[in-house]
Predict the structure of Lipase member H.
Amino acid sequence: MKFEILAITLLAASVGAVPLRTDEANDWQLISDVNGRMHIVDLTATDMEAEPLFNAYNDVVFRLFTRSNPTTPEAQIIRINNNEQLANSFFNVNHPTRFHVHGWNGGGQNTGASIRNAFLNRGDNFNVFTVDWGIGATTPNYILARNRVNDAGNIVAQFIDFLNAYGLSFNLIGLIGHSLGAQVAGAAGKRTSRGIVASIVGLDPAGPLFSLDDPANRLHHTDAQYVECHVTDGGRLGFQHPVGHANFYPNWGIQQPGCGPDLTGQCGHSLATTFMVESINPANIFGASRCRDLEDIRARQCVISGPSRRLGGEPVQDGPAIVGSVYFLATNAASPFAQGPR
């Protein structure tokens, strides 16, 4: 029998919780794309319809934004190893440089706009690159998009090495990725050849088809000098286990306030980006308490086991963090979501 990927857009209110069904033949799950559309995906499917090839070197687009060119029409496209384009752009080798990587079915000229604007509104000293791997990510076939993560990450790594050869310090580089984009960011961090990036923030890193037992093919704390994870729909659309240095579980990492029943998890999954955007504004502090471990989160009873720290922010690293440390915080049900320091 032939199993094909079904991509059916659904209204969240009309479906049940994920996974929908698991048996010996297939594993049907609802997975959200970057636009909030839910798709039914058979995670065991192997016989997939052919689609156009994804040539990451040619197809991934890097758009540069600065305070001198802050909007989409003014974006400057920079190609790998094109020193002339870089020299004629607004790129400043002395400025902190942030990358945003979108998730499944994302991409396009305006991808990452909220993150981009948050940095540019904060100050005039940021280079912000949006990573558009939409040709690889825009497909009804989630498995195909997932299998392109390492290819996309490899090109991001090559681009970072190019910037470093041009004179940019690895200590100035931070990556932020949502869902499947968080896994791309991790793949990039693994593959840089000239140094290790300063930070990676995984915004509810994608869970389906990523394994705790396969750190070589998922986000891992060794992918950057500091890795932070924000888990907002853990165990469904997001990867629940603490895989970074500091791992934050707003509202216990699932069923976010303001999302209602959120049967599919899409609302909570997308809120990870909203929280990060808000945190970049220094007026918004997401204070979090350190718990003992993931079991505290699952039991919804945090036993304080160390100093508090803030989620997100700029710079993202709020002091040293023990690998695998776990933090709980509550948020408001509407913006402003931050409840201040703890």
Remarks:
- The radius of gyration is 19 Å.
